[in-house]
Amino acid sequence: MNERAVPRALIVLLTGAAAIVILAGIKAVSSIVGPLLLALVLTVAVDPIRDWLARRGAPHWLVVGVPFAAVIVVLLGMVGILTAAVVQMAVLAPSYAPQFNRLVADLQRLAAEHGLAPQVSKAIQSLDPGKIFEFAQGLLSSVLGVVSSLLLIVVLLLAMSLDAPIVSRVLDAAAAERPAFAAALSTFARRTRRYLLVSTVFGIICSVLDVIALFFVGVPLPLLWGVLALITNYIPNIGFVIGLIPPALLALLTGGVRPMILVIVAYMVINVVVQSFIQPKFLGDAVGLTTTVTLVSLIIWATVLGPLGALLAIPLTLLTRALLIDSDPSAKWSAALISGEVPKTGGPG
Fold first, then answer.
1. How far is CA 163 from the centre of its chain?
2. Is 347 exposed, middle or buried (0-12, 13-18, 19+ CB in 10 A)?
3. CB under 8 Å to 200, separation ≥6 — which residues?
4. Distances (CA, A) of 55 to 48, 60, 185, 222
5. Measured between alpha carbons, how far is 261 from 313 in angstroms, rounded to an integer?
6. Angle at CA 287, nearest 5°, toward 301 and 318?
7. What is the pLDDT of residues 34-73, one digit of tens each?
8. Residue range 200-213, pLDDT digits in tens
9. H helices within the chain, ranges in order?
């Protein structure tokens, strides 16, 4: 059948329907797909180490073992820090009940002075300090859930590390017959590594500055919030806001409005300046996604895979682009809509 015989609107509708079915299926098995995709992204991230060892004639076990060990050390270190800090927060949270009650009383008094007592009282009734403690316990359970799936992630990482040299040779051989497909996967890997590298470097800079600011303001558990700032740096557009909310609320409970304002200002100065003005100069067009596509991908992957999907939104979107668009030479205009870069020459698509 001639391609032009099929209405473009029908193609769009069928593609959208297929995407919804596939995403629903992924969501149904997200407990398996999430660790699988995380292991894939981590394997891609350490591929330069593997290539460097292979070029220097290192034995196969070293080519496989060193990148695998590097990922495991980073993964276990981050999970260990988060687990210890969240346990400490869960133990510390009940001690802030008196401060919470005092803030509620001050808010009620202020509302009464301005004639807003009924509205404020109704809103306050929905606030319960016990919910804060339940949130802390829920956060602890989430971290422990990550730990429980750590064995699956480690097994997947080991399997992918063993297969990585084979996959690399297959892709090199496929470049002769399927150059667009091989180039698309190579571009995905390169952009993913650059994105992770730049995000990690600037995430560490922001988290260190955040910890210093929180230490001087006197917010408890500054290390926890620093690690949280590093992790949320991988979430595009809204990551720093997510990392700001817990220390700002804790500053309000421990010191009042002034420390909370100081925390908000410090985070805005540090994160907005670094992530909005400095980081893009180093990242450049490595991601190849427009702002709208980035935001939509964040919403979609977070809905499908939860918090892990938010963290991996950019790499997963790059993988989807590589498989569905970049590997098809006729889809150059679709790629242009996603990247915002107009092709140099015209053509079908």
1. 26
2. exposed
3. 230
4. 10, 12, 21, 43
5. 31
6. 45
7. 888 888 999 888 888 888 888 888 888 888 888 889 888 8
8. 888 899 899 999 99
9. 8-28, 30-45, 47-55, 60-92, 97-113, 117-125, 129-148, 150-177, 179-217, 222-232, 239-255, 257-267, 273, 279-283, 291-305, 307-311, 313-321, 332-339
The candidate with the shortest Cα–Cα distance to 315, out of 187, 129, 166, is 187
The 10s digit of each residue's pLDDT in 240-271 is: 888 888 888 888 878 778 888 999 999 988 88
- Locate 342 and state its tokens: 């107009």
Tokens of 333: 């205009």
Q: Is the pLDDT of residue 124 over 60?
A: no
Q: How far apart are the first and last CA of the chain?
A: 17
DSSP state of 131: H
Q: Which pLDDT does position 340 carry in this prediction? A: 65
Residue 63 · residue 165 · CB < 8 Å: yes
Tell me the C-alpha distance between 195 and 189, whole Å. 10
Q: How many CB atoms lie within 10 A of CB 13?
A: 11
Nearest to 348 by CA among 4, 1, 18: 4
Please state, in angstroms and rounded to a whole number, the distance separating the CA atoms of residues 289 and 316: 12
Listed range (15-24, 56-65, 280-289) with the worst mean pLDDT = 280-289
Q: What are phi and psi of 234, to 5 degrees?
A: -80, -10
pTM of the model: 0.77
Handedness of CA 252, 226, 129, 115 (dihedral sign): positive
CB 246 within 8 A of CB 228: yes
* pLDDT of 347: 47
